[in-house]
Structures are given as structure tokens and as C-alpha cells.
Write a structure and sequence with these properties.
The complex is a heterodimer of chains A (91) and B (374). With 91 residues, chain A is an alpha+beta fold. Helices cover 25% and strands 34% of the residues of chain A. In chain A, a hairpin with a 6-residue loop joins β1 (5-12) and β2. Chain B has 374 residues and is an alpha/beta fold. Chain B folds into three domains: 2-63 and 174-247, 3-Layer(aba) Sandwich (Rossmann fold); 67-171 and 287-302, Rossmann fold (3-Layer(aba) Sandwich), CATH 3.40.50.11740; 318-369, no CATH class. Chain B has helices at 2-6, 10-23, 37-45, 65-68, 71-81, 104-109, 120-129, 146-159, 173-182, 196-201, 207-211, 224-239, 259-268, 299-302, 318-323, 354-373, and strands at residues 30-36, 56-63, 86-90, 114-116, 134-141, 164-170, 190-193, 217-219, 245-247, 269-271, 274-277, 281-284, 288-290. In chain B, α2 (10-23) packs parallel to α12, α3 packs parallel to α16 and α8 packs across α13. The chains are: A alpha+beta (91), B alpha/beta (374). Chains A and B meet through β5, α1 and α2 of A and α3, α7, α8, α10 and α13 of B.
């Protein structure tokens, strides 16, 4: 439920200012950046994602730590299933 | 030990475990509540109990959103979902939670249009794709999830999408902690504060726990070392007779939280005068409802909601377990009538529920031992 999944912003979507393509362990999906308006995220930034929304900007090192946390908690599969399940890529 | 196998640096763990032993007064008991269901899961998974001194007891708190939802709300939501032309959309976590007449998954098997979504915005997308139907999103979660629902509702309004509504079951963590502290049968020494809720609300909302209730609280990460370090921080405070809010999970939790997320919540939601929590009863100002300005997208205003109140199955003791008064294994149904495969109560459904966590890591281990000796 409360998975926080690290991903890297690949590109901002030109005509939809709140959406970005984010790469999570090689899987690319659209993620909503609407909760990070104060932080002005740009491609190359790492973010923590929860239910399709980026929750916070984090460092690359903390992103790697977070991915490891998911792995040792046995939640990496559930996290990837969640990311694959995001349906925004064609909207 | 399972714990050491799965952790990268057992030496560091042993050093921290040693410090915990050094800080612990063997002449007293320590009762710490981990508020967050994710922490409960991690504590069982890593067998942290085995590395802690016997007089440190970890009490599992109310921070599993699926677990604290009373059955009546599930039935209310399913009742709305049964209406013709309605698509019932919810997170996967909800699908196996039993209502009085079965879970969402069982309703789907009986012909109801039930869809799993991984994001509230995907529920809105379903509404865009099915203009002749009405999509109702069954929203659950603490402050971690509520901002995403809020932003989705703001988008629905901005785009003027009329065939979408939210059945709002979002709850807030602070009033639940207050209810637990006010409960006469609950004596706690300190709190392990929730991780991801705090990315949104920050650390300030916990200050009253330290200042007024004189209980130390440490916001913690989810790895074994995070949790052990948080316990060290709590023990140091207790030894020094102080009570403050500390943040162990600084790599993710900013002290001030996420202002944009709080602003989205404030725009869309207001506090309900009261809301029923499984096990804790009615708690005032503990849940969110949708503001008048978004009434059109509020399933509770748009449709007639029965307001069903269902008591939990008689023998099940979910409430006592949820309050930390009983351990999962002390419930009469645990491991017999109620298992993760056939859950009777919600605490057995979610991996963050203390019954499922206990069953998956402790009970199966014990069963394994039994088989090994037979």
C-alpha cells in the first residue's frame, strides 16, 4: 500500500506540464509531478513515486538505497507490478 | 538467523544491537509502538524481535489503511458499485478485503464491474475512456495517498469530467495516535513514527506527542538498520529523560513535509466531525471528506449511501489486535478459520496487517519447526 518507488525523470511531457516519463529499473511510465510543483523537477532528477504521483525529489544515492530497501523487504516485485500497472502512458 | 542473511552488513547490525543492550535497563519494560503497517511488516520479516532484549516490546499500531477501515464502509462502497452503469475502481489491496457479503473480488465474480487501478489518476482515465458509464474510485489511505486523490479530483473538476466520483475513506494518522494515547488499557513509552506519511506531513505534527504527552517519537526508515537505529534514538531519549521528535529517515522525510501535497489536500478535503475506525471506534476529526466545492465528484453526495454498520465476525478479535491489546496469535480464529488464503478480518489481508505479517513470518516458521520434529 505505502510503497515509495524510486525513479528517474527521463522527459517532461510538452503539452501536459504535470506529466513526465519516468524510468524505474528500465520500465518507463508516465508519472504525475503535480505534487512537486515547488521543486521544479527536470529530466535527470530522481523522485519517489507513490500511486502514480512523485512524492519527493531525492538524490541518486538515496534512490539506489530505496531500491535496495524494496528488495530486502521483498517488495521489489510488487513495486514493479505497480509501475507496470500505471496506465497513463497513452493518455 | 534470517535477519543477518538478508542484511548487507551484519557487523553494523551487531554493533547497534550491542548499543541497544547497553542502553536498556534490565529492571524495566519498554513498550514502543510502531505506528506504520510497513514497519510492522519489516519487523516480522527481519525477525527484529530476535535481536532485541526481551524487555523491549514492539506494539503494532493502526497504520494499515486497509485494516482500520470498518466493514460497513466496504459494504457501502460495494453497494454503490452494484448500481447499473457503475465501474467500481480500487487499489489491488482492497480486492480481497471481506465485506459482509464478500470482497470486491467476489463481487466481481458475481458480475459486478470491478477494476484494479494502481493510481487514482488511472481511475479518472477509465472515466474518460467510458463516457457512458460512471467510474467510482474507492479511495483509501493515510496522508501518503490522500494528496494523489486530491490532485485527481482537481483534474476531474478542471476538465469537467462528470462521470467520475470518489468514495472517500482517507484517514489521518495524528488523531489515531491521540486515541491510542487516551485509551486506558494502553501504556506506551515511545513511538516509532511513520516513514512515508511523514514525507507529506513532515515532523512538526508529532511535536505534541513529545511536548504534552512526554513520549519520545522517532520517524523511521524501513530497513532493519533504520529500525534498530530508531530504537537506539528512543532509548537514548528515555535514558536522558527527554522527549523530543527526531527524524531518522532524513534521506526521504523533509522536516516540513511536502507543502504542495498539503495544499492539494486542503483544497479538496475537510475533516469529518467523526469517523469509525475498526478496533478504535469513532474518533473525532480523524478522517477526510470531500469539500462542498467538489460535491459533484463526491460519491457520498452523488448517490444514496446507506451508512451500513456491520460488526466484525463475532469470534474475530481484529479490534483488540489492532489496538495492540492482543497479539495476533491470541485471537481465537488466528491460523485456523482466519489465514492469508481465507481471511476473515482485514488484518489478515494486507501484507501490512499485523496478522498477515505474523502468519507469514512467525507462524509458518513455527509450523516448519513442528514438521521438522515430527
Amino acid at each position: 500500500m505505502c510503497l515509495a518507488i524510486p525513479g528517474k525523470i527521463v522527459e517532461l511531457i510538452a503539452d501536459q506540464p504535470n506529466l513526465a516519463t519516468v524510468d524505474v529499473n528500465g520500465v518507463r511510465r508516465r508519472v504525475d509531478l503535480g505534487l512537486l510543483v515547488d521543486e521544479h523537477p527536470v529530466p535527470g532528477d530522481w523522485v519517489l513515486i507513490h500511486v502514480g504521483f512523485a512524492m519527493s525529489k531525492i538524490s541518486e544515492r538515496d534512490a539506489a538505497e530505496q531500491m535496495r530497501t524494496l528488495r530486502i523487504l521483498g517488495e521489489d516485485q510488487a513495486a514493479m507490478d505497480e509501475v507496470r500497472g500505471y496506465g497513463l502512458e497513452s493518455s | 538467523m534470517r535477519f543477518v542473511d538478508e542484511f548487507r552488513d551484519p557487523e553494523v547490525v551487531n554493533t547497534v544491537a550491542e548499543e541497544i543492550r547497553w542502553l536498556t535497563d534490565p529492571g524495566r519494560r519498554y513498550r514502543f509502538m510502531e505506528v506504520c503497517g510497513g514497519h510492522t511488516h519489516a519487523i516480522y520479516r527481519f525477525g527484529l524481535k530476535d535481536v532485541l532484549p526481551a524487555n523491549i516490546e514492539l506494539i503494532h499500531g493502526p497504520g494499515c489503511p486497509v485494516c482500520v477501515l470498518p466493514m460497513g464502509r466496504i459494504d457501502d462502497g460495494l453497494e454503490l458499485g452494484r448500481q447499473p452503469d457503475v465501474i467500481f475502481a480500487a487499489f489491488g489491496d482492497m480486492m480481497r478485503v471481506p465485506g459482509a457479503h464478500g470482497s470486491p473480488l467476489e463481487h466481481k465474480a458475481r458480475g459486478m464491474d470491478v477494476r484494479i487501478v494502481y493510481s487514482p489518476s488511472d481511475a479518472l482515465k477509465l472515466a474518460r475512456a467510458n463516457p457512458e458509464r460512471h467510474v467510482m474510485f474507492f479511495a483509501i489511505g493515510f496522508e501518503t495517498t490522500a494528496p494523489s486523490t486530491a490532485l485527481t479530483l482537481m483534474r476531474a473538476k478542471a476538465e469537467g469530467i462528470k462521470n467520475f466520483s470518489v468514495f472517500c475513506n482517507h484517514v489521518t494518522i495524528i488523531p489515531a495516535i491521540r486515541a491510542i494515547l487516551d485509551s486506558p488499557d494502553m501504556r506506551l513509552d515511545a513511538f516509532i513514527g511513520p516513514g512515508h506519511v511523514s514525507t507529506v506531513i513532515g515532523c512538526r505534527p508529532y511535536e505534541w506527542i513529545a511536548r504534552d504527552e512526554k513520549r519520545p517519537i522517532v520517524v523511521s526508515g524501513f530497513e532493519p538498520l533504520d529500525l534498530l537505529q530508531s530504537i537506539v534514538m528512543l532509548l537514548r531519549q528515555i535514558k536522558a529523560r527527554t522527549a523530543i521528535v527526531e527524524n531518522q529517515y532524513t534521506r526521504v522525510v523533509p522536516w516540513e513535509g511536502n507543502r504542495a501535497a498539503l495544499a492539494a489536500m486542503a483544497e479538496v478535503f475537510e475533516l469529518r466531525p467523526f469517523f469509525e475506525w475498526r478496533g478504535l471506534g469513532f474518533i473525532s476529526q480523524s478522517a477526510l471528506r470531500i469539500r462542498e466545492a467538489y460535491a459533484e465528484w463526491d460519491a457520498e453526495r452523488r448517490f444514496e449511501v446507506a451508512g451500513v454498520r456491520v460488526t466484525d465476525p463475532k469470534a474475530a478479535q481484529c479490534g483488540e489486535v489492532l489496538k495492540g491489546v492482543l497479539k495476533p496469535v491470541q485471537c481465537k480464529l488466528f491460523g485456523r478459520e482466519c489465514t492469508p488464503e481465507r481471511p476473515v478480518g482485514a488484518l489478515m489481508v494486507s501484507s501490512e496487517g499485523s496478522c498477515a505479517a505474523y502468519y507469514n513470518y512467525e507462524h509458518r516458521k513455527a509450523l516448519g519447526r513442528q514438521h521438522a520434529t515430527v
